[in-house]
Amino acid sequence: MALKSPPVLLGLLGRLSRRSFSTSKALASTPVTVRDALKQAIDEEMERDDKVFVLGEEVAQYDGAYKVTRGLWKKYGDKRVIDTPITEIGFAGIAVGAAFGGLKPICEFMTFNFSMQAIDHIINSAAKTFYMSAGAIPVPIVFRGPNGVAAGVGAQHSQCFGAWYGNCPGLKVLMPYSAEDAKGLLKAAIRDPDPVVFLEDELMYGVPFPMSDEAMSADFVLPIGKAKIERPGSHITLVCAGKATDTALQAANELAGNGIECEVINLRSIRPLDFDTIAQSVAKTHHLVTVEQGWPQSGIGAEICARVMESSAFFELDAPVWRVTGVDVPMPYTRSLEGLAVPRAPDVVAAVTAVLGNKIVEPIRQ
Amino acid sequence: MALKSGVSFIRFKRLSHGIRLLSTHTRPEISQNGGKNADFPGVKAPYVTEMKLLNEHSYDPIPIYRVIDNNGEVIERTEEPRIDNETLLNMYKTMVQLNQMDKILYESQRQGRISFYMTNYGEEGIHVGSAAALLPQDMVFAQYRELGVLLYRGMTVTEIINQCYGNHEDPGKGRQMPVHYGSKQRNIATLSSPLATQMPQAVGAAYAFKRAPNNERCVICYFGDGAASEGDAHAAFNFAATLQCPIILFCRNNGYAISTPTSEQYRGDGIAARGPALGLHTIRVDGTDALAVYRAVERAREIAIQNKPVLIEAMSYRVGHHSTSDDSSAYRPVEEIQKWTQEENPVQKLKLYIEGKGLWNSDTEKQFAKEARDIVLRTMQQAEKKKKPHWKEMLEDVYYDMPPHLQKQMNQMEKHLKKYKEHYPLDQFQSE
User: Fold this and answer.
1) Are residues B23 and B111 in the same domain?
2) What parts of chain A have a pLDDT lower than 70?
3) For chain B, what is the mean pLDDT?
């Protein structure tokens, strides 16, 4: 799978420098979009296990609202790729029941904003039935779809559910960043015996990432609950997930120009949370900034701060931890404001500069 | 008028057809409104020129199917179900056992021995009639007032009482409120408190059955008239129909959702009227007549197994309070209840029927009622003495494999209990 033609290589290098990917082995790899990586994961798992099926609005004939399930209906037919009526409460309930009945459903929400219609099935049934049935009824199910901020879709279609679902025991919550994350984590989610909430980013679907030969293989599965160090560094730790990883990496790239080396930790999994990796990094850098697209209160960053406070990692800190989050308002529709309502690289740069400068001042109100 | 224009329309079409045959031009044929069927993607229906709005009185109410009268006499011989004597006795005995459990467990809640209970009075006919018409491989999704179904399917008095007491022999490991039963080996999905969530889930389970080769299983999903107002109910009806699932959606219309009477719960012709509208085979049945319920479910099963979903609305009356948290005298007169405990009593009706067949008499009644009462009392005394589940169960089954953070908590707790055991009532809990 090595690259054959120089133009492709040049193109890839160009993209690499633009997007500041850190992995060098990526050079010997194939560019794959997040969308295609997700499709690959579903396709391979459907091929591997005929209990796996997809249901949701527009997932079959229309190939999915965001084309993640492209071609799957043609390949697997009506029984395994099901277009449903427009009732999230209905098809999420159907998916939960099908999991009770021994199948492994992949339940697509056109966006996670719509999952609120079905949240009772996710929290009260999917997450708790294994426990409430005293271990008799496992619920192997994946709820997936785009989460968080898209572009120009207003307050009701732009929120991050990482903290919401991350709050609930019984669920596993994954947030892929790259194509490799998307494929390896989705395959792990489908194989997992517990219910998994899989939060994708609409704005990342079309972004190509280099994928290694290993990641292209049908056996490629990533462990759930293990973070990835996207970029090693010694001065400060940036913890992020999903699209926020992109923002953090951009900031790290910029800061590297000023001699500040950020260690960027892509969480991959919100629940279980790989706190060990964070703590080890903090022990090295003694500074921590979290980056997320969701709101600040009770968010992912808040959770990380709390865990630092409750552990010996606290004594490693040379400065208070800062959170860079989405602004604490419903998402503005105005494009200029929308862009400012979610963390941008300059926000992260500012936070890093402040924390490293040990400026104990009132943090910027997010 | 309509006929006349119809005739002229036909003439016109013939004429235009003739002209078209002669003509070299092709002109698209335009069908005319009036007297012809429309061809919209959403609906195929005739056009009319007379405007008419429909309301709840446009249709006759869906009739209520019954087999026996108040004296336990079969009304129409051909409708009498063929049920062997042993099954009939089993059905009746289940009703008696159910009544005894309700009586004693309700009292035990009043005495503070258990935290909660829900009685089943008035719906015994629904329980045994439907349960007897199903096969053991069929899957049951219950709401919470279907204890008779569970008993009939073989859940023992001991298992049920252990669940209510949440002791270490409770199949549910003491994790749920009383009455939240479940039994995997008897194909009974564990009850879930949120109302109506079992409905789309039942359809999903039926879908899983449908996918199995040579499927011979169906799902029955019980729900109340109040639950039918939840969005989940509509979703379940619509998905059962569109996914063509082997499911019986069984509404126990007992007249009340806690204190809300059906007159405030819905308008129109009850729950059954929604069936045909959503593409479901539908029947309304007298829920106080166990034999009618049996016949309806038996037939529904035959249809459902061919992947044609069925809706049954069984009419009954909730004789008891909603639960131990409710006092129904606040919202209904005592006289209203009497009719349903006397002439329309489902237990009485089936008793008269089997007595008529010479299968039962006052002696057997007396003897069995005593047995049924004794076993409940005895089991309750035993259940009370049994230890609580192992404290570790609190952390089990949250995930399929215990994650490290729970493992860590468990280890800490274990050490703590070892060190400070005298401060904890460990003797009340099951040990390893």
Assistant:
1) no
2) 1-28, 359-366
3) 92
State whether B414 and B365 are in the same domain: no
E runs forming strands in chain A:
30-33, 52-56, 81-83, 104-108, 142-147, 172-174, 196-201, 208-211, 228-231, 236-240, 262-266, 269-271, 288-291, 322-324
Query: Is the CB of B207 inside 8 Å of chain A's CB atoms?
Result: yes
Contact B224, B145 (CB under 8 A): yes
Residue of A90, A138, A169 with shortest CB distance to B235? A90
Q: Which of A94, A133, A136 sits opposite B239 (nearest CB)?
A: A94
Mean pLDDT, residues B220-242: 96
State whether residue B231 sits within 8 Å of chain A by CB.
Answer: yes
| Pair B379, B417 in one domain | no
Interface with chain A: mutation pick from B187, B197, B245, B430, highest number of A CBs within 10 Å? B197
**B213–A contact, CB cutoff 8 A:** no
Q: Of B130, B183, B316, B323, which is the active-site residue?
A: B323
Residue B196 has pLDDT above 80, yes or no: yes
- B56 CB-side CA count, 13 A: 10
The residue of chain A nearest to residue B402, with distances taken between CA atoms, is A170
Interface test with A, best of B187, B207, B244 (most A CBs within 10 A): B207
Residues B366 and B413 in one domain: no
A137 to B189: CB separation less than 8 angstroms, yes or no: yes
The percent of residues above 70 in pLDDT, for chain B, comes to: 92
Question: What mean pLDDT comes out for the span B298-308?
Answer: 98
Judgement on whether residues B378 and B411 belong to the same structural domain of the protein: no
pLDDT of residue B26: 55
Read off the tokens for B192.
């879930």
**What confidence score (pLDDT) does residue B29 get?**
56
Percentage of the residues of chain B whose pLDDT score is greater than 90? 87
Q: What is the mean pLDDT of residues B233-238?
A: 97
Which of A149-158, B333-342, B366-375 ranks highest by mean pLDDT?
B366-375
Annotated catalytic residue, options A157, A235, A286, A287: A157
3-class DSSP state for residue A331?
A: coil
CATH number corresponding to A228-356: 3.40.50.920
- If asked whether residues B226 and B350 sit together in one domain, one would say yes
**Can you give the pLDDT at residue B31?**
52
Query: What are the pLDDT digits (tens) for B140-181?
Result: 999 999 999 999 999 999 999 999 999 999 999 999 999 999
Nearest CA in chain B to A170: B398
Indicate left, alpha or beta for A237 from its phi (over 0: left) and psi (-120 to 50: alpha).
Answer: beta
**Edge-to-edge strand ranges of the sheet holding B219-224:** B139-141, B219-224, B247-253, B310-315, B281-286
Look up the CATH architecture of domain A6-216: 3-Layer(aba) Sandwich (3.40)
Instruction: Pick from B140, B192, B393 the residue to mutate for testing the A interface (most A CBs within 10 Å).
Output: B192
> What is the crossing angle of helices B198-211 and A88-100, to 10°?
50
Q: Active site residue: A88, A200, A263, A303, which one?
A: A88
